[in-house]
Specification:
about 270 residues; Phosphatase 2c, domain 1; PPM-type phosphatase domain-containing protein; globular; single chain; 4-stranded antiparallel beta sheet; 5-stranded antiparallel beta sheet
Amino acid sequence: MTFSILEAFTIGKSECGYSEDRLVQTANHFGVLDGSRGPDGLPKEVITSILDSAKDHIKGMSADTPLPELVGALSDITADRKGAAGFSDFKRSGGFVFCLYSTHYREIWRVGDCKFKNEGFEPAAAFQAEIICADARSMILKAKLLAGATADSLMADPGYSHVIDDLLVHETAFLNAADHPLGIGAITGSTVPDVFVKRFPARPGSLIITSDGYPDICEDLGTTEARLEEVLKMDPLCIDENRQCKGLAPGLLSFDDRSFISAMLSA
């Protein structure tokens, strides 16, 4: 199936403009990369190099490159960049997830928790370990609110962004852990087990791919952005309707970087 891009948008969560999301669009593929620096705090220049090199690799690969080959190449790029920077613990030093459409295979490919909606089909992308961490953060911050804090006072507290740091370190133990119910798939530099390398047959019609910076995928970019704005007004701490491992804070435009790309797929 060929495709025609309808809308594409990406923006960082910070007012400074820095982002760990990337949009990818070629004649044969389109999609989103969503990066993370991990609890060890991979330097910005390293995660930037990983994401930009991964994007360049996708842009240069042939239309018939199979998904396992792509995942292996992206893992090698990540391992090389981390190794050159002196990082040997691939789990704690972050990486990225992605969702990509392939015209040759007529498939939607996903490793990790990027989201997509294809003619009403929207398979769940969340991992249980991430949900546990978000629920724990919600409980801790709700306890502080119950004790008299306000959303503004919490966001102004220097410890606000570190409430679940210990849990996030423990969460990395489940990265690419194939035989565990809390397992999480991601490109970290280590081997990605097949169970986390997902492929879905694409349906002719609308396909929207986003990073997890959007709580909901709506029918187009405008309504998806409007929904995000609505949710952030109702739940700025991201502890209720939009439970997350992070929330709004001073200097932030949203709780996470966000990317959106949509296309019409033609049989």
